[in-house]
Write a structure and sequence with these properties.
It contains one helix and eight strands, in the order ββαββββββ. It has one helix at residues 28-32, and strands at 15-18, 21-24, 78-82, 85-86, 92-96, 100-104, 112-120, 124-132. A hairpin with a 3-residue loop joins strand 7 (112-120) and strand 8. It is elongated and about 55 Å long.
């Protein structure tokens, strides 16, 4: 399966029927990340989940009541990434697991770099460039 470079967020949810329509709720956290704007139009891909009986399990907590997931990076972790965008203040922006945003100063769009995570917050991390990587490596 090919995933578009324009992917803004990735999350799991359930499809619910409401008043003759089917609804997938977007977690508030996805809007707080700044990648999505309320009342804007977005394309949505719906993929089947694992074949389990989770829908029959009445002990599960609805997604809206689940605690937020922990950031997928830790201080001191190194990753090789591609800078996807440049932010309003000129810093490079990349996304890692689950669309988690990492801000990398002194980079250019489409640049491939190895980064060291220096600060991790609930919705964003900050990193420094350790090495500039060739696309052919």
């Amino acid at each position: 399966m090919e995933i578009s470079e324009e992917l803004r967020c990735l999350f799991s949810g359930t499809v619910e029927e409401r008043n003759g329509s089917y609804v997938v709720e977007v977690p508030e956290q996805e809007l707080r990340l700044g990648d999505l704007q309320a009342n804007e139009m977005y394309r949505v891909a719906v993929l089947p989940g694992p074949a389990t009986n989770e829908a029959d399990n009445t002990d599960t907590v609805p997604q809206s009541e689940q605690p937020p997931q922990k950031p997928p990076v830790k201080v001191g972790e190194q990753r090789t990434v591609e800078i996807e965008n440049i932010g309003d203040q000129g810093d490079g922006i990349t996304r890692v697991d689950r669309g988690f945003v990492v801000i990398v100063p002194d980079t250019e769009q489409s640049e491939r770099v190895t980064i060291d995570i220096t600060d991790v917050r609930e919705n964003v991390a900050f990193a420094e460039v350790v090495e500039r990587v060739s696309y052919y490596e």
